[in-house]
Design brief:
The complex is a heterotetramer, with two copies of chain A and two copies of chain C. By secondary structure, chain A is of the alpha/beta class. Chain A has four domains: 194 residues, 3-Layer(aba) Sandwich (Pyruvate-ferredoxin Oxidoreductase, domain 3); 182 residues, Rossmann fold; 73 residues, no CATH class; 126 residues, 3-Layer(aba) Sandwich (Rossmann fold). Chain A has 19 helices and 21 strands. A seven-stranded mixed sheet of chain A has the order 9-8-10-11-13-12-19, sandwiched between helices. In chain A, strands 2-3-1-4-5-6 form a six-stranded mixed sheet, with helices on both faces. Chain A has a five-stranded mixed sheet with strand order 16-18-17-20-21, with helices on both faces. In chain A, strand 2 and strand 3 form a beta hairpin. In chain A, helix 4 packs across helix 6. Chain A is globular, with a radius of gyration of 26 Å. By secondary structure, chain C is of the alpha/beta class. Chain C has two domains: 232 residues, Thiamin diphosphate (ThDP)-binding fold, Pyr/PP domains (Rossmann fold); 32 residues. In chain C, helix 5 packs antiparallel against helix 8. The longest helix of chain C is centred in the first third of the chain and has 15 residues. The radius of gyration of chain C is 20 Å and the shape is globular. Chain C starts with 32 loop residues before the first helix and ends with a helix. The chains are: A alpha/beta, C alpha/beta. Chains in contact: A-B, A-C, A-D, B-C, B-D, C-D. Chains A and B meet through helix 10, helix 11, helix 14, helix 17 and helix 18 of A and helix 10, helix 11, helix 14, helix 17 and helix 18 of B. Bound molecules: thiamine diphosphate (2 copies), iron/sulfur cluster (2 copies) and magnesium ion (2 copies).
Chain lengths: 595, 595, 297, 297
Amino acid sequence: MSDSQQSLTIRFEGDSGDGIISMGKLFSRVAARLGYQVYTFSTFLAVVRGGQVTFQARVSNAPLLSQGNEPDILVALNRQAVADNAPKVPNGALIIHPPFGGTCEEIPRHARTLEVDFKEIAEGEAGTARSKNIAATGVLLGLLNLDLETAEKSVDELFASKGADVAEANRNALRGGYEEGQKHRQLLDDRFFPPADTTARLLLSGNEAVALGALTAGVRFFAGYPITPASEIMEWLAGQLPKVGGLMIQAEDEIASLAMCIGAAYGGVKSMTATSGPGLSLMIELLGLAGMAELPVVVVDVQRAGPSTGMPTKEAQGDLVLAAYGSHGEIPRVVIAPQTVADCFTQTIKAVNIAHKFQIPVIVLSSQSLSHRMQTIEPPDFEKLEIFEEKFWNPETGPHPFKRYPETEDGMPVPRAIPGIPQGMYRCGGLEHNEFGDPDFAPAMRSRMVARRLKRMEAIAKAFRGTTFKYDSGAETHLGLMSWGATAPVALETIRELESEGLKFRALLPHVLWPMPTVAIRSFLASGIRTLFIPELNATAQFAEMLRAHFTKELLENNIEVVSITKDDGLPFSPAEIRAGVFEYLNQRHQEVSK
Amino acid sequence: MSDSQQSLTIRFEGDSGDGIISMGKLFSRVAARLGYQVYTFSTFLAVVRGGQVTFQARVSNAPLLSQGNEPDILVALNRQAVADNAPKVPNGALIIHPPFGGTCEEIPRHARTLEVDFKEIAEGEAGTARSKNIAATGVLLGLLNLDLETAEKSVDELFASKGADVAEANRNALRGGYEEGQKHRQLLDDRFFPPADTTARLLLSGNEAVALGALTAGVRFFAGYPITPASEIMEWLAGQLPKVGGLMIQAEDEIASLAMCIGAAYGGVKSMTATSGPGLSLMIELLGLAGMAELPVVVVDVQRAGPSTGMPTKEAQGDLVLAAYGSHGEIPRVVIAPQTVADCFTQTIKAVNIAHKFQIPVIVLSSQSLSHRMQTIEPPDFEKLEIFEEKFWNPETGPHPFKRYPETEDGMPVPRAIPGIPQGMYRCGGLEHNEFGDPDFAPAMRSRMVARRLKRMEAIAKAFRGTTFKYDSGAETHLGLMSWGATAPVALETIRELESEGLKFRALLPHVLWPMPTVAIRSFLASGIRTLFIPELNATAQFAEMLRAHFTKELLENNIEVVSITKDDGLPFSPAEIRAGVFEYLNQRHQEVSK
Amino acid sequence: MSDVSAGAAATAKPSKRTYRGSQRPTWCAGCGDYSVLAALDKALISYGRPEEEITVVSGIGCSSRFPFFMNTYGFHSVHGRALAVATGLKLARPDITVIATGGDGDALAIGGNHFFHAMRRNVDLTYILMDNQIYGMTKGQAAPTSELGMKTKSTPYGTFEPPVDPIWAALTMGATFVAQTASHDPNHMTEMFLLGLQHRGMSFINCLSPCVTFNAGMDREYFKAHSRPLPENYDPTDYEAALKLVLQARRESFFPLGVIHVRHEPTLAERIGEIREIALKKSAHRTSVEEIIRQFL
Amino acid sequence: MSDVSAGAAATAKPSKRTYRGSQRPTWCAGCGDYSVLAALDKALISYGRPEEEITVVSGIGCSSRFPFFMNTYGFHSVHGRALAVATGLKLARPDITVIATGGDGDALAIGGNHFFHAMRRNVDLTYILMDNQIYGMTKGQAAPTSELGMKTKSTPYGTFEPPVDPIWAALTMGATFVAQTASHDPNHMTEMFLLGLQHRGMSFINCLSPCVTFNAGMDREYFKAHSRPLPENYDPTDYEAALKLVLQARRESFFPLGVIHVRHEPTLAERIGEIREIALKKSAHRTSVEEIIRQFL
Ligand SMILES: Cc1ncc(C[n+]2csc(CCOP(=O)(O)OP(=O)(O)O)c2C)c(N)n1
Ligand SMILES: Cc1ncc(C[n+]2csc(CCOP(=O)(O)OP(=O)(O)O)c2C)c(N)n1
Ligand code: SF4
Ligand code: SF4
Ligand SMILES: [Mg+2]
Ligand SMILES: [Mg+2]
């Protein structure tokens, strides 16, 4: 965080029936509307059935890179919530809780408390205790002195589908809580800060951002199959695609999902599917077909902890090697990993663009934490967004005869024909073929076609030159860091923190992981670093392995040691954990040197 | 080839209706029975429908490493066969052919010829021209003066299923041809050599050897789905398994095949499936399940040229990265690649042993050329074969309570319980779990279980120490070579040839590719080599990439340059091609140095 | 396969709770699957096989959690593959009673092909499908059994695909025992399960088992109101009558409860047994691997 | 999707050979698939759509080579996925006539689940299945249609699984047009294909098409001898009559040739059209992406 950045972390916790998620979303929505940057995190439970639910919202006056550490404010809806968090809250934290009938020993000395009878407010104002979560949110908003009118509007929207009565009751509960909160404003006066500006921002989850990106990029066909944590992408698109003339169909399985997308892609319609690890594993054969037939299709893989069914609601970055290498034989493909919710939007657009520009399958590697986290993003400027529209082969301008798979100097595909275009009829499929698409197994033709497909990868790598995100403190340093996906911003926050303590880093945080951004990586590896930290959420250090395989020479020449910081417990990295990984290595090295 | 080794390469060619394969098999069978070493190669056509068919048999008095180069003897059944081969046959080659009615301009000057009217012999002796292939085989056997009685017995067996009449007719055709051949024995007297001994050897294709290996190792359940070039494995087992109380079931697809095997494996029965690339791609999700549930199952992947449907009848080694990395998340697994037909037998046994010893899935990577090639192998000594039999958990001796997935010091699994064993009831599956197999997502438990599975890989690597095949000319040299699968013996033959020209090599040809044989590779890389040639049949140098990823440090420390020699045209390497790859690099280096 | 030593079978008569696992079910309060579990427990008590000779195989879904709540061998496989895994197990270990359980999505969406082929093969399994017309586990998307026009999370304007009727599917694909029951009638369920367990061949039992959380419209009362017992004179061995009944039920929107169809046909294992006889006859006696190998000499 | 410009449709009336590709079929001499190809060509000539508005989608198998031999758009996908690919194409491009072709293995073994769901969805496709009761391409293993006890390369002692009857499967899974024809009767084939092409919804046509190389027993003569035309008074719109007929045919081992069943029901695309109407009504008018995005503000 930069010096002038201020942030506040609020945690909502209660029973699964308490409406915790609604509280968190309501609060976040209000903050986003008022111009704050918001970053949330919620834990979903392993099983459908109840237990404690937590929702954490961090608000700031500048963009946020992580969910933060322990909460400054805890809004507890039951005693368990206090017990869970008490040992961890920082000095001076505020705990807002309902009466527990007697003193609550769990409350730590170093915290401040505010007892409010949410239920009573709800019953009094809304006529039902069920609105106690909204009353509690009102208390918080009142304490922070955030705009009541904005909050009321948000409540209205939240309950719009439940009818006017319900909305009104909840508005009343909100107002009741708000008034109570206002009475205690002094409790938070020292922590309050205004937003940097009053631009209303979009508040989106990663899954929503992917879906929105797809829609924006022109995807009009989506076939999918439900799976945690990716289902929201198809659910959201099911509601929106018909409005723009597209459609979402729930297929019988993931194989059919991708097959349908491939059919639609052959027909010239931008198509996409989204799944998680088990689905990606099932799609591998068809991914190979898309690569061989050179059809543009986007597969989003919202990674979760594997292998197999693994832990469906938990975070991991364990599907990278499958995304990059999954297929018998060798196909051209691109793997892109968004790092933030904003990326989920922009990188999905990029994925669709690439798929069509290069006529290949593109895999977007999101992950569980990213998918369900809500974050504010700047409203997109539609004028500036680049959306690639394929120009199909034109029978009038030719060239004739139409060749679907010719060799080109730059490795780029030529405009393709799609059904309906006269004289463009060709056959595509998974067999090895000649330039026209007809089966051809002659050894020389085969070798040319293999080379042609590999050349595409070079063309793609070239197209991305200069786009890889670099972080450079400017100072001379031997320390480097690379990271990807949801771990990258946490890593960035970590090195920024370390910087203030005097440890300088150079970092490279690529979005495009395959083909690897060769030029950027080469110059990064040649920039003087000697130790390269690579934090990622898997057990076998997948990205580090790919890096070593493809940049063996550069690592050798620059005498760079790769230090993987891995974690596989199903939770995202906290900055503290990456920090620990860095120091563990440095201390060990130090000891070795001093021996 | 060693100095005292002699070999003769015979090619049979004709129309697809001519019975070329039967000729080749008959000849090979006779030679094998008489004690010769045999190595065959046949080209299958891309489509079902006719064209030329070629079968090549190389016989020797010592073990053979490759199919050889151009034929010493061509048995042509039509004019096309002469035309196809004439430009390539070596000096002094013998071409045996039917009359073409007039002179045949295609016959090259440098070859000798023998014209025999196979058809006439067949019609005269067998009463039908259809036996002309057997007559022609008879001519060849007569020329070589091989034992007629052995040949007659082989003919009988070949036609046993067609009835006594057919067998007799063909025996007659054989005899007629044989007599004709004997008349011209002087033509081949200079090329003839006796076998080293008269031990009858098994003559097997790679697919038969895999199937036989499975049967020998105790596999009693096989579920499969037809696919070229793997189908013969299931076909053969369909005939044999019922005889030993087992069964082969043709499943509805490859997913069901592996699922059924996993079910049988859970039940404690040794199970296996076999497929090719497309099938392996479909099995990826279930492979993950087997890894997570720690169930022993063997998947044979007879590689063919991919990606996608690719070239089903063509050779490739393009599935290695899929076999090693295919699965979302990370599972323990073993990948073994046989190099010869004999390996197909022994390595399949090893695969079954490993699967059960370590309770994990094992992938056997065969390939098209290996699968259909016939080769002699020494008859197995059943006394010496090691067959691992699992001891299941015993409720009387415990330990109690039964823990299916405990952590152990050496990373080895404990005896498991199977249905029917009292008190051993446990639930297995793909969810993350605790020691008992019950779902458990607690971060600490998760991390322990991930570590536990990875530790298995170390235990496996340890178990293989000292078993990797090394070739060492003994001389000091900077040149190294690594290769795998069907390419390895060709590479070995190449470096042996080069050795006679003064270029010395050290070579490492591992069968177990995953986990990589760390100790063997480390000591190999530290043996003084500076240039490491890695020939393999794919475009992206998959094995070389894995080597670089995992031995970055060692390559760096020993200053070794990895030189991939790749080929992707659908045909196996010939020694000449590997040789060319080596010289291309050496010449280039030489030029660079002299600049 | 008879080579596998299955351990000595416990002979004690199973008492109440024998087949209940120690883990508490994690289903939502009110979920129909609770009573399915209770009924299966009861049916197994009557069936009387020792718990170690029973294996419950499932896919993924709320209903597929079944194996964890039972004190038998259990295999919680992957989504859609329960029947393929169960088929492999049953063929390899015909001595074990294999029960497959799962949801309508698991069985008929991703698992549809295995369903199709398991039915025609007549594998000797008992398959209990918990039909809630929704994807419970993934929080409320359309299942292949969801009624045309039904609004779910994945079909905000209503589904546009005509649904599959599980009993029609099982019946027409070849199951030799097809029954329907409902979680609001525990005794009926127990009876159906027991009959299914006793039947030799593929027994398919569809249980109307409400998902109270994501398909509140189809609760216990809904299923009750729409269920009908079979007509008095109904003959489940008459295949054409069964087809007619199911068609009528679809037309008139009711759920017939009871044994819809039963017939006796060789099971897959029995047919494989015949094959083995032929194979053995060909080689005159049970062969050894050594003998088989000799044919390559 | 109407956004896609489909190019101006050629208006010239198609002449003979219009739909025949330049590649010579690679089938064995005598393979039944030759006459299927010829008949489809004829049917398309009568159907009369320009060749660029037709796409033939297949899986893998001898019969799946079809697209290569036709002068239309073509997609030779992967084994078993023809119907899923065809469904995606048809939904995305309702303006294109989509024909799917393939073998019995492709359709009913590995492709069984897509078959199942394509039938129930009533996608507007014409699916031509070349039923040779064997796996031709892979040289002679059992197909799901192979008769019980049939000896094949993979079943040396005879198959042990009761076969699937493709027309029964299509009929019971929901196809709205089900016909059977045979390659020995080119005119009948042409007629059936044309009717299938004209039908709105899923048209399934089973063609008895012998594999002379790997299933010599079931040749032209065999199929001819076992085929029967439909009874004079047969009413293909009577679903129950159709079920009865197919059951009778299985009992008496004959192949009924003709339109077994036809009915009219909204196609998948039509039902999706209704959904779109609802969606548009909700947002009052056709929305832009910008407007949709605003809801997150
Ligand atoms: C390959 C794969 N795809 C998707 C999923 C996600 N998933 C888990 S359960 C389920 C469906 C559950 O519905 P159903 O089978 O009807 O069971 P219920 O929960 O309703 O009992 C899905 C789609 C998965 N686990 N694996
Ligand atoms: C995933 C996959 N599995 C298996 C195969 C091998 N294969 C190709 S065609 C075929 C079956 C052919 O039979 P059918 O569909 O009946 O067509 P036919 O050749 O008889 O016309 C099989 C199993 C494949 N190509 N892909
Ligand atoms: S979500 Fe539905 S099916 Fe799942 S446990 Fe809850 S009520 Fe049962
Ligand atoms: S193998 Fe059979 S199906 Fe294939 S082309 Fe030949 S005859 Fe036709
Ligand atoms: Mg369900
Ligand atoms: Mg077929």
